[in-house]
Amino acid sequence: MKQKPDLSFWKLWNLSFGFFGVQIAYALQSANISRIFATLGADPHDLSYFWILPPLMGMIVQPLVGLFSDKTWTRFGRRIPYLFVGAAFAVLVMVMLPNAGNLEFTFISAMTFGLISLMFLDTSINMAMQPFKMMVGDMVNEKQKAKAYSIQSFLCNAGSLMGFLFPYILTAIGIASVAAPGIIPDSVKWSFYLGATILILCVIYTTAKVKEYTPEEMAEFRASAQAENQLETTGSSSGNALQVFLQVGLVQFFCWAAFLFMWTYTNGAIAETAFGVDMGNTEFAASPEYQAAGDWVGVLFAVQAVGSMAWAVMLPRFKSVKMAYALSLLIGGAGFAMVPYISDQYLLFVPYFLIGTAWAAMLSMPFTLVTNALEGNKHMGTYLGLFNCTICIPQIIAALLGGVILSLVGSHQYNMMIVAGVCLAIGALCVGAIKNKTK
């Protein structure tokens, strides 16, 4: 029976290289959405509501991409057509979104334009992102899965590093980071334009370098994996897969809620603690200090990406996937808990570096556990698309409750970092409940 072969490092690299460009787009969105909508005039207590759209679109789009790509076979591949179309749409929307404030719209029209652009941006990013995870599931054997997802995590964080730093770097070379009230600064606009260019180039590279397996080869691999599973277990493989799916999903709930709070409230938290911004002032978003804090948030998220890249190299060295997963979340939770107590902008590098360890694990460990449980299943793309709901649903719930929780913890956005830390600690405890054939 035919087994999936071991792939060279560079074949594993090429398989995920386009993810580098996709993650630049995602990083620009993550670091700048709250800043963009605050600049347009949104109330800080309402910021979390703008974060409902991204996970909502992901929950709709990614299962559909998985379902349809499972049934798609073209001369360009099985998953590649979806990632290419998604990337092309993402490029178009990345040019539109940062112009929400300078088209002479009214406040309501500018916010509506921004929301619609955000909806399409996240739809297209999700369409481009999911096929990379599916291709690893399709093309990499169980022995190399952890390594493949670690490479993907590294590229993901390298892309994040670049995307997060763009506004700060462009400001440093003289592009304006402050604009008239309601107008998005040029440093943010040009960051999106540059990110769009790199995204499409990276995706073109992957489509040129990767040749997906044929339907006949995939059928042989599935038959081999199913035969092996029957020898290894007396239970239902689909039942085991569902059990792992749900157990990992519980961990995912707390992890992604934590990071939704980080993306939503870090701008305000850092503006308050390190830049002395009075977030109670209705004109706070037009102040140079707030916009400087927005640039610095990109630097802190870049530090998080560096921490994540460093930790991604360490993760395959752990003998126990579960131990690596839980420890990473605990370290990240400790990083979150430190943020409110640090007022020096440079000392903030420490907690955000620690937060990166949790992010590295979240990008690789869940997919290692779930794809190993699904090995041999011909509907892997559909399952991974559905698994994305364990990423999206917690973000939607956290976004809906964000304003309420913010009021309960005293309306200071830095307190939401403690809430995020508690969420990661709970997620680490839930890792112990995962039952999987890897340790």
- The end-to-end span amounts to 26 Å
Task: Give the CATH level 1 class.
Answer: Mainly Alpha
| Helix content range | over 70%
Question: What is the CATH superfamily?
Answer: MFS general substrate transporter like domains
- Secondary-structure element string: HHHHHHHHHHHHHHH
The whole-angstrom Rg is: 21 Å
Overall geometry:
globular
CATH topology: Growth Hormone, Chain: A
Mean pLDDT: 84
Largest sheet: number of strands, sense, barrel closure: none
Topology, number of strands: 0
Number of domain units: 1
Q: What ranges have pLDDT less than 50 throughout 5 or more consecutive residues? A: none
What structural class do the secondary elements suggest? mainly alpha
Can you describe this structure?
The chain is mainly alpha-helical and 439 residues long. The protein has one domain: Growth Hormone, Chain: A, CATH 1.20.1250. 75% of the residues lie in helices and 0% in strands. It is built from 15 helices and no strands. Helix 5 runs antiparallel to helix 13 and helix 6 (145-172) packs antiparallel against helix 10. The longest helix is centred in the middle third of the chain and has 39 residues, at 237-275. The radius of gyration is 21 Å and the shape is globular.
